[in-house]
Structure formats: C-alpha cells, structure tokens
Sequence to fold (380 residues):
Amino acid sequence: MAISLGSALLASATAALGVGSVVVVATTSGPWRGGAREAAHENTPVVGSAEVPAGVVQTITGGPDSKGPPVDGPPGAARFGEPSGVALRAGGQMIVVDFLNRIVLTIDDQGNSTRIGGSGEQGTADGPALTSSFYGPSDVAVASDGAIFIADGAGHRIRELRDGKLTTLAGGGQPGLSTGSFADGPGADARFDNAAGIAVDLDGTLLVADYNNNRIRRVTRSGLVTTVAGTGEYGSKDGPAMSANFAYPVALAVDSTGAIYVLEHGNNALRKIGRDGTVSTVVPRTLPFTADSALSYASAVAVDDVGTVYIADTGADRLLKIAADGKVQVIVGRTGDPGFVDGAAGQAKVKGPQGLAWSPTTNSLIFVDTGNSAIRKVGF
Fold:
C-alpha cells in the first residue's frame, strides 16, 4: 500500500476521475481453481495461516467493530485504526502498518496481532521500537533477511525496523504536507516528498514511490538514494525511464523478472518499468470515469509467483486481476458498493482496500480492507 486516503477524498475521486480503455469483467468463478461457497454476512475471523478455499473471501482479524486506538490480541479483541499496508515474512507472518494509529504490528498464524514498532505518538524519533515514533506510516516491505522497511509517507522518510530498534535509513527535513523537496544522496541528505509506497527489488535494494516528486527512487541498504525513473514533471509520457513522466506514483510491486509495476493516482493508471529501463502503460487512463472500466484511486499492487498482477482499487471498493489477455477482472467486491461481507468473492464486499500481499504458501491474496479496519484474504 500506499498513501492513506480519507473517505471524502475517495468519494470525490470516484465521481471525477478514471482510467482504462480496457474491458472489465465481474466474475465469481473465472479466476479461481475451484468453486466458491455462498456469501456469509457474519464474518468470523479465521486462522491466519489456514488455506482459504479458491474464490472465497475470509477475514483474518479486525472489522468495522474493531476500529479504535491500538489494542493487541486475538481476532475479535484486537483494535486497529486505519491499516494501510501489508507485507509477508518468509514464514508467512504478516507485517501491517496502521496509518491512523502510527504503529507497525505483526499478525501470527492464529490471527493474533502484536505491536512491534511505534509509540502511537506522531513524530520521527528513532530508538527503541516501542518508544519511537512515525509521522504517517503508509506502506511496508520485508527483505529476505527479515528486515522490515516502512515508508513513513508524510514524514518523508524510509525507516528500518530491526532487532527491536527503529532507525531512519533515508530522508529528512520537516515532516508534514508537501514540502517540494527533492534530493538524491546519502541517508539524511536525501529528500522525498511523500514516500508513499515501497517494495524490495530482486537485488535487495528498496524502491520508493515518491508521490509528490513524481519519481521512482532506489535506496540501498546503506541508505544511498538515487532516482531510477521519472523526470519529476507531472505527466504520462512513456519511454526511457529517466525521460518518462509519472503523476503521483503511489504503489509498487516487482515481478520475478525484475519488472517494476507502478500505480499512479494522478493518471489513475498502471505503468511498468521493464528490465531494459523502458516505461510502458499497462492499464491506461480514460475519461470520463465509468465504474466498470477504470481505476479509481487504486492504491496497492501485487504480483503472484507466476506473474499475475492484482490491484486494490481503493475508490471503487474492489480487487482486480489483470488477466494474461490484458483484460481487467473484478475478483472481489462490487463496484462502488462498499461493505463488509465474507464468502463467495463475487458477492463479498470490501471498503477502500489499500494493501496487498501475495502468499505463495497458502495460494491466497492478503488484503488490507482499510475502510473496515480489517485484514482479509481471498483464495485462488
């Protein structure tokens, strides 16, 4: 995930913006290996590591009644503010950032949540993980060695959580709204302007969607920041990475070939940076917005182990799949019809999803149902 959005902003975006001269197909069976059961209107959280049936949505923990100040505990007792990003460790443990409560937490294989970083106070203080502070954590990524990296969006910093300590890997300056700051360089000398989304590249370096700078940045494990794509100008120009334009890039994912997928709020589009450094458009923008053929402030993207791309289409309250033939399929949710319903994916309801992570061990897509303050999954 990415940048956290208020419901009013999403509502206005849904009414005004859109993309995609592509076909969108609502489906309850096409993307799944098996059948789907009937929708359940009473969501019962399930064991976090359990394999969910194909074509079925299940809640792991949280829900509309779980919204509030942070409380650790099992499903039903835990409390979340506005979870906005999720990543998985090698063993399947979920790492979640809670934008509103300004914390990082783990969710184990029983669905129990435990805070591991952030005091809940707003700030940029490093130090012992539970007494340190975030300004507005928006996304999270996990390296192969287990290190946790947090995009502290409006804090304009990339933070690292390791061995019970939180440090600032890169970025600095005054936190808050758009600062207009941009600079490559080492550690605290570098500048981001809303480090909204983060992903780990194949070589272990970090990729950052620098939202207001309209650029994709790279951060080495030593904190050196460089720009890998984007001129900084707002636009939709494809071509060589350093001459291409982006419009508010918000989320990133890397596939097994090293191609980088970029979601944009400004263009309401999905772009791709190939291994050869060429930027292309996968799902283009189109106007006016139409519910079944456009992205609406999509805020998370993930790629599974065979290269299938998934999108959390935040403003339209749905999850999408980009099929091999380029068609966009609605796999979870009903366009513009938010709710909180488990069961058959075509009948399930979500509300403003903002985080995605593919789980190869359970063959499922973990998603952060931000508007419902829940962590949920759908099986394949």
In short: The radius of gyration is 19 Å. The chain has a mean pLDDT of 87. Residues 7-16 form the longest helix (10 residues). The chain is about 5% helix and 35% strand.
